[in-house]
Amino acid sequence: MDIQAYLKRIAYTGAVDVSFETLRGLHLAHLYAVPFDNLDIHLGRRLSLDGAALFDKIVTRRRGGFCYELNGLFCALLRQLRFPVTMLSAGVARASGGFGPEFDHLALCVQLHDPWLVDVGFGNGFRIPVRLNETAAQPQGASAYLIAADGDCRTLLRRDEGGDWTPQYRFTLQPHALEDFAERCVFHQTSPESSFTQGRICSLATPEGRITLARNRIVETTAAGRTERDLTLAESQPDGGELTTAPASRYTVQP
Q: Which member of 40, 75, 104, 105 is catalytic?
């Protein structure tokens, strides 16, 4: 891995020692630079979990991806920087209740003085790593996160201002390899039952909030509130061109 190219891709210029401060900085920088998206699925492109292919897509071609790609490559970066990190299997919470199957989502555990839950691939998730062994709520801006333990399983819950606690995903601390997620990765690319085949999404965190492309609608949230607008014909992408993130954290179309 070209570490410097990766750090440049996420515009990270801080320390690279094995510390929580570095982990926090890398986590934020990744979320602000690399979008969560399923665009290749809707362009009919098969996604690869090969390390070189992930680096080429996310770093060289300045693309985004979904959890297996984003957390898979971020795990590789952390290991190159000598962070003790393992891959975790999670089942995502369903609107109808319960959770998805094992390997439905890939999250990370980084063991420093305390273990931390790390996740740069869950769309609108936490900005800063969450303490795994903390039993109290962990506030982050207008939201708070809580990890509830039930035997070997743990559930990540989120509460937005004025709302109730809502489960995000359930996981165990058993370590896994990236290839363990390959079958579920294919499912999410091909099955009509997968949410990723239902419509296009591309979402990027910003220091002020988030900007999201959902199907053909742009949604932007800031401290001032939420705005929505439909894409114009000139802004849409009927020719299957490639969407990249520019250094200014806005989307530009490249043929």
A: 105
Q: How far apart are CA 106 and CA 120, in angstroms?
A: 10
| Active-site annotation holds for 75 | no
CB 124 within 8 A of CB 34: no
- In the residue annotation, 67 being an active-site residue is answered as yes
If you average pLDDT over each of 98-112, 197-211, 235-249, which comes out highest?
A: 98-112
Entry pTM = 0.89
- String of DSSP letters for 182-220: HHHHHHHHH-TTSGGGTS-EEEEEETTEEEEEETTEEEE
For the chain, domains (ranges, CATH) are: 3-254 (3.30.2140.20)
CA 139/CA 159 separation, integer angstroms? 9
The predicted-structure confidence for 99-154, as pLDDT tens digits, reads as follows 999 999 999 999 999 999 999 999 889 999 999 999 999 999 889 999 999 899 99
